[in-house]
Structures are given as C-alpha cells and as structure tokens.
Design goal:
The structure is a homodimer. By secondary structure, chain A is an alpha/beta fold. Chain A is 45% helix and 17% strand. In chain A, the strands form three sheets. The first copy, chain A, has a six-stranded parallel beta sheet, with helices on both faces. The first copy, chain A, has a three-stranded mixed beta sheet with strand order 7-8-9, with helices on one face. In chain A, strands 10-12-11 form a three-stranded antiparallel beta sheet, with helices on one face. At the A-B interface, helix 6, helix 7, helix 8, helix 9 and helix 10 of A face helix 6, helix 7, helix 8, helix 9 and helix 10 of B.
C-alpha cells in the first residue's frame, strides 16, 4: 500500500506522477529547489510542501541522472522513506553513483517512466502522462522484493505499462530507440542549416518526419546523451559503418538494396497502436479545404458511417488553401468510409 | 498552347499528369509497354492509346532516369512531338544520356514534379497529385525558350509550383532533402532489425517518425539512389563525419550541443504549411476515447468555436483505448479552443 509519497523535483515527470497519485487519494508531498516550479506544481494541485523530517512510504527522485546518487544518499541519511525510486532517462549511471555514495541498495528501485513529450516543466504535466506508456523498472541484484512491489504499484497507479529489465539492457535499448534516432535526426537537419535556399523549396513530408524531433531542446538532450555515452556511441559506430558503406557502394556503382531491406525489416518491428504488433491499416485520402469546420464535417460523416478513424495525417499543400487528409481505417471499413465521404460531396481519389 | 500530349509510361506520375490535363480538355495519348498498367490508366479516364506516327505538342517521358536518353532519341527520330520533357527524380543523368544519344537538346526540357507519395503505379494516381507541390524544371543552356514556356504551361495546368534550377543544383538539393533522409531513416531502422524484443517495447513516437519513410519500397529506392550516386555520397560523407565526431565526443566526455543546435537551426529552415516560412503554432492537447465519432464531435466543437485546426497528430497510447489528440492552432486561438472543448466535457490538460 502506498499512502504517502515524496516527489523530489517538480518537473514534468515528477509533477505528472504527483497528479496521478492524487487521483488515487495518495498523500503527496513536494520538494524542489526551484521556487517557481514548486509554486506552479502546488497550484496545479500536485501536493503540499514537504517538511524535512516527515517520513513517507515512497520517495520519487525527479532529479537529473548525474545527481540521483547524491540526493538518494541525503534522503536515506535522514530516513525520509521506506522505499526510493528515480525517473532518470538512463539507469546505469544513477545505480553506479548510488553505490559510490554508499547508499542502501535494498530500498532503491531504479525506474524510468517513458513520457514521450518534448516539453518540460510542471506546466506541461498531466495526470494521464503515463497512461499505457512503457514504465521501465530496473531492479538490481540487491533490491528487496517488498521495495520492488511498491514501485510496481506506483507504476500501476499511474497507468504505466511495466517493463522489467536490467540497467545496462535498458540503457542499450533507449540508445537504440530514442537517443540515436534523436542525434541522427539532428545530424540530417544540420545538413539543411547550410543548404542553399532553393534546396529547401524541394522539401517534402519525408524530411519533415525524419527531422521533427531535431527541434527538441539542445540543453535537455545534451544532458540525456551525457548520461548514456557508451551505449549511444556504440550504436552510432554501427550506424556510421552502414552509412559509410552505403556511400562507398554508391560511388562504386553498387546497390544499397540490402540496407534498404534491413530498414524495412527493422521498421516493421516497431509495435503499433495499443501495444500490439503493427496492424495493417488502409489509408483513405480525401481532399479538404483549409477552412474552419471542414475537418469537423469530415469526421462527423465518418462517425455517422460508424467508421472509426485509427489515425489521421494532414498533408500540407504548400502555396494552396487545400490539403489532403489521410485517414487510416481497418481495411474492411475503407470502402464504407470512401462512399460516405463521396456522398457528402468530398473528393476521395480512387 | 497545349492541345495534345503523349504520356509515355503510365505509372503514378504519368497517369496523374494525364488526369490533370484531361480536366483542362487536353487530348491525352498514352503508351506503356506494361499492358496491365495501360489498361488501368485508360479505365481511369487518363486518355486513349497512342498510335506511332501521330504527332503531339508535348511528349512527357514517365520512364526511369536510366532510359530517358534512349527513349527520347527514339521519339525524336520519328518526330513524335514539338517539345519533350521527363519526370525522373534525378536530372544530371538523363541530360547526360540524352546528349550521349545525340538527341536534339533544344526541344528537351528536363523536369521533376514532386509528388510526395510512397505508393506507385496508375492505381495510386490522382489528378490533384501536384496541387501546390514543387515542380522542378531544369533547362539546359541549349533549351529553346518556346520549349521552356510549353513545359512551364504543363506544370501550371497540373497546379504545380514551378521552381527553375540547374540539373546539378537539383540533384544536390534532392540528395539533401530526400535521398539522404531516406537512406538515413533506413539505417536507423536497420539497427532495430537486430535489437532484442524488449528494446522495441520502449519505442515511442520519436523513432516512429524518424523511421516512417524507411518502410518505402527498396526496389524503387535502389533505382532512385543509383541515379544520384555522387551527390548522395557527398552528403552521406558529411553526415557520417558529424555522427562519428558525436560518438568520439561522447566517449571523451565532451558534449554534442553544437550538433544539436545546428539541427534546430536546420529544422527551422524547412518551409511550413502553404509554402511560407514555418509558422509558430500552439498545440492544444485533448484526451480522446478510441471510439467511432469521438474525433467527429471534437472537430465539430472546434468548428463551432470558429477555430481552424492547422494540423492534427494522434498520439498512440499502447495498451489502452484512449489517446491524445494534439491540435495545432494559431497561438491566439488556443485558449478559445481549449475552453470550447472543456465546455463539451473533454479533458484538456492545462
């Protein structure tokens, strides 16, 4: 049972956890060195200020990975909680630093709730931030079973999907699925920083998608990458080898089909919506005008036809006040939707 | 004036051009060695079969870049048209091959309409495929002004946004904004092909976006890349240098902030919706249930509040029947929309 929780660090993750716990009637105490952040978190209804000396069931350390060990040692010294967890985006470094600071490792359960937001700070917090998203828990060989249970319970209260794995395994995984994709998107976008103006005029949706995350905060990402240097560098080496080989092959008049095929295979392994394997959806395209209410009428028509739209992408039409909406639906519903939209006067290309 | 056009090659691009021209009353004649493709294009209403000997105003070569020169030489030999253009995705190679085949260069205007679709074949054709999209025209020093005017007129009839630039300039540009992003997305995705199953469970929206285009047809892309080897290899070299330096810096305990900052700068140069500079939109998030009609009601409410939604992204919530819709609106309309949605009972996180 979790009756009381100390959230130390009222950033995006800490405040969101606090909001989720309050929904379940948990007493939440807050602490942050940043007064403005504290004020905002309190006014969002995240909890009350923690007074040093008050003992809680669980302390959640929402602090940068570099200081988890030090902060944990301080809290344990004053016996602030029965169990401790953290939310840092890398796991081997905080574990190593906790050991280096002589922390009690039986009551420490390293964790990493995946929030999937580029924004930061308590203003971006949401009590539903973790709903259905992976929440990695990385117990060490010394972690006590009762401590592990309590942190599992925390993740469940927040609606997260618990994934247990080792700290090194975790760090290698996030290097692959998050850190290297980010730095690669930045490198592709960096090429555009020096490109002639005319070249940018030929940009389409592909390069927009590839570089979207490159717009993220460089300061935040510098810190994230600094906490996972070796796994990121290892994946970067392998990636560079593939790209250098592709450049060599192209110059030699050879094909790069093998790399492209491996790309298709890797892409198909990313889980689809709702955690299952990627489902085959059919895309129905419809030409829409760029006026208020146009999408409303379109979705209204889809709803009346009892077709559920699984995903929607608006294709931009540079220079013109029309666009194409791509609606993903179950294959058996595509014809129904197309007919319904045509009946309402929309242009649905066959 | 364009009264008659021969479309040679009834693939996605050729058939879409034919459909667009028919809208304007142009007589369109079709030719393709693939009988099924011809049959489909005719049944889509793209035009009638071309009989060798019938002369047209303009011939559009919808054939792979490797054979543009050879096909052009054959057509010119039988005086099939006054003016010729092609639609290949690279431009230096077809120009060089046209010269090598001794073609008349005054009547040839190399072109590249950017369609921005991953699908291919006449079944995916749309008469509005080029609406507002870039249509590159790459005249050589020998191109006759009347020939250039006719191809400009073709692009205008199809609704394309004409961009004139040299063939080498064009190929360097598409290497930057299309070919290298594609091969890089494939390389990032290829890393996932070998990843342990658990790692994929930590995948979020970022890696989904970066690798989306890696799902494209390897055969098609092998051909595209083979036609632009040097420009692609040059950009890949520069990209590899940045990524290798990042790996070195991380191992040495140095930061990669500079690369991340250049990425932000490059990303900001990609033109926004409607061709203008990227506009700052505000994102309003709303929690929605995964049921038919839910998005309809949401857009209905937005339309009633007279707020135009500029873009919409559905965030997937693996494992749960709820999702978050991110609605991009003009900053001054965000509060209006949020209030309207709350008034209808939606949960809009502050």
């Amino acid at each position: 049972m979790i009756r009381s929780v100390l959230v130390l660090g009222t950033g995006l993750i800490g405040t969101s956890i606090a909001l989720a716990l309050r929904e379940h009637g948990v007493r939440v105490l807050l602490s942050d060195v940043d007064e403005e952040s504290m004020w905002l978190a309190r006014n969002l209804g995240a909890g009350e200020p923690w007074r040093s000396g008050e003992r809680v069931d669980l302390a959640v350390l929402g602090v940068p990975p570099q200081v988890v060990g030090e902060v944990l040692a301080g809290l344990q010294k004053e016996d602030a909680a029965r169990v401790y967890t953290d939310v840092a985006s890398v796991k081997a470094m905080p574990v190593a630093q906790a050991r280096a600071h002589g922390c009690d490792m039986t009551s420490f359960v390293p964790g990493h709730p995946m929030a999937g937001r580029e924004r930061s700070g308590p203003a971006a917090a949401r009590r539903d931030l973790f709903l259905g998203r992976p929440w990695a828990i990385c117990p060490t060989s010394q972690t006590a079973p009762e401590a592990l249970d309590l942190v599992r319970h925390l993740a469940a209260l927040c609606g997260g999907k618990i994934m247990e794995l080792g700290a090194d395994e975790h760090d290698a995984a996030v290097a692959l699925v998050s850190h290297v994709p980010h730095i690669t998107a930045a490198a592709v976008a960096a090429r555009l920083a020096e490109a002639p103006e005319g070249a940018l005029g030929l940009a389409g949706q592909g390069v927009r998608d590839v570089t979207r995350i490159a717009g993220g905060d460089p300061g935040l990402w510098t810190g994230i990458l600094a906490g996972n240097t070796r796994p990121v560098a290892d994946v970067l080496d392998a990636l560079c080898a593939d790209l250098a080989e592709a450049a060599r092959a192209l110059r030699a008049g050879e094909t790069v089909t093998d790399l492209l095929r491996r790309g298709v295979r890797g892409r198909s392994r990313i889980p689809g919506k709702h955690g299952g394997p990627a489902k085959p959806y059919t895309v129905v395209q419809v030409v829409i005008e760029d006026i208020p209410g146009e999408l409303a009428r379109l979705f209204q028509a889809a709803g009346e036809a009892r077709v559920n739209i699984e995903d929607v992408v608006l294709e931009h039409s540079p220079g013109l006040p029309v666009g194409v909406a791509e609606l993903s639906v179950r294959p058996e519903e595509a014809a129904v939707l197309a007919e319904a939209l045509r009946a309402h006067g929309w242009h649905v290309p066959k």
